Amino acid sequence: MASVAGRLESRGVIVKYRKHIAVVLLAVSSLLLATGCRDSRSIPVKDGRPQITIMVGGLEKVIYLPAMLTQQLGNFEANDIDVKLLGEQSGANAETALLTGDVQAVVGFYDHTIDLQAKDQCIKTVVQFADVPGEVELVSKQDAATIKSPADFKGRNLGVTSLGSSTDFLTQALAGQAGLNTSDYTRVKVGAGQTFIAGMNHDGIDAGMTTDPTVAKMVTSGEAEVLIDMRNEQGTRAALGGLYPAASLYMRCETVDSHPEIVQKLANAFVQTLQWIKSHTPEEIAAKMPSQYAGGNPDLYIKSVRDSIVMFNGDGLMKREGAENVLRILGQYSRNVKPVADRIELDATYTNQFVEQALRLPAQ
User: Fold this and answer.
1) How far from chain centre, in Å, is Cα 299?
2) pTM of the predicted model, to two decimals?
3) Which of 295, 332, 310 is nearest to 129 (CA)?
4) In this protein, which residues make up the domain named SsuA/THI5-like (predicted)?
5) SS (H, E, C) the chain
6) For residues 18, 20, 23 and 28, what is the CA-based torsion angle, rounded to 10 degrees?
């Protein structure tokens, strides 16, 4: 009997073991199915043209205007690439889509490349659209009399796109330079556009960081006032102690290394757009954008373009001074970067190689 019991017990162990192996194999297979065909190093080609999907951290935001404008001007097509633009209101969510291989590139803030390197992920900016954030800290009309500077953020609810986003980093930097810790105020996720407006108008936030056209809408209506303006170099240097390169095109390092010819086509297209912006008026730029971006008020949209368009650098080059200042700020206020700031390799977070080549091409 003991022998039979032993065999039964042995069989039970074997069955359990086989079930365990089956579960593991099923999990691995599911993971491979979920991620195997989404490797961002593999760029699909149709009729000889690369098929690129770019996620933009807010397609309607003026800070990311070059993405849609490049499509509207036909610059992607002129460089023999097909590009699909996807909108996502948070840069933090856009970077996740890039890391999972759902998209091949992101139009978002450069600072994500540093933050991700701190997490042992290699992301590289290949075209730098702007040397400044293009962001504005708005204060609600009812709080404008008592919030005059970041020192007055204590005890307040401050709107950010999402926790871990660039607006979150910048909010912490503004407050930190005023001597406040994150425990002194509350960061509230309010997104952008209408959700930001609703948050401010319904007492969800007292102040918050956003961009045009939201800034133009709220200031023109009298619902908010500008507290800190980082749409130009002067305001950015005053607020952050230097340049803060923001809107950019970034990709996984493996993609850049594996497909330099495709990256070059993207760089060519975006540099052509940045040069076009510098040689045209806000009215001409606004006229090229999809009509729905004006939200039924073309004059207000032109104002939002006029107020922000100075942020774009016109050439797509990263300035070393700016990259160093971003690292300095994240090294102080980013929970991820601070412990490893001295090990961050800035040269791995951006390259001017493709833009420099694009600038050698004849002007369009």
Assistant:
1) 27
2) 0.86
3) 310
4) 66-280
5) CHHHHHHHHHHHHHHHHHHHHHHHHHHHHHHHHHHHHHCCCCCCEECCEEEEEEEECCCCCHHHHHHHHHHHHCHHHHCCCEEEEEECCCHHHHHHHHHCCCCCEEEEECHHHHHHHCCCCCEEEEEECECCCCEEEEEEHHHCCCCCCHHHHCCCEEEECCCCCHHHHHHHHHHHHCCCCHHHCEEEECCCCHHHHHHHHCCCCCEEEECCCHHHHHHHHCCEEEEEEECCHHHHHHHHCCCCCCEEEEEEHHHHHHCHHHHHHHHHHHHHHHHHHHCCCHHHHHHHCCHHHHCCCHHHHHHHHHHHHHHECCCCCCCHHHHHHHHHHHHHHCCCCHHHHHHCCHHHCECCHHHHHHHCCCCC
6) -100
CA dihedral angle for residue 150, residue 154, residue 159, residue 160, rounded to 10 degrees: 70
Buried b (16+ CB within 10 A) or exposed e, 127-155: bbbbbbbbbbbbbbeebbeebeebebbee
Set out the domains of the chain in order of their start, with CATH numbers: 46-132+245-360 (3.40.190.10), 135-230 (3.40.190.10)
- Give residue for tokens 């003026």: 62
For the chain, which ranges sit under pLDDT 70?
1-41, 89-92, 364
Distance CA 292, CA 16 (A): 60
